[in-house]
Amino acid sequence: MTVMVEDNSASAPARTELSDLLRVRRAELRLSLRQAEERTGLREDGTPFIRKGTLDNLEKATPRMAWTPRLPELQALARAYELPLGRVQDAAGAQFMGIDSVWDASGEARALIKDAEKLTPRQREQLAKLIEAFANDASDGTSDTQE
What we know:
Elements: H1 17-29, H2 33-39, H3 52-60, H4 71-80, H5 85-97, E1 99-103, E2 110-114, H6 121-139
């Protein structure tokens, strides 16, 4: 389920969730950009899967960066930075598409929400109840997919 919230502000601040995650994690691992590049793996032609310059631009959240990582690149980033793929995907979704993951209280169900930070407290409460209802429906076997 996706709840769309319009962004009427022309100067919405750039989001940096993936950039921040990678920059902090590389520092924790004490890796150079060259080492991070090596850890992304090699393409069939022997070149690094993600080059050092691209990693540097990504970590700095370079505004004019024309590269948006797809699943293979996200997998390479997860491998290089020793992070769970889901965490890298969530951060990339937030930074590049404005999509946030909102989890239910149990941590078993989530919704991907466009610009979730713009929801009102009331909308957040309603969303939490909706996610919880779906989680409960799936766990008690009454889901429509289980016939």
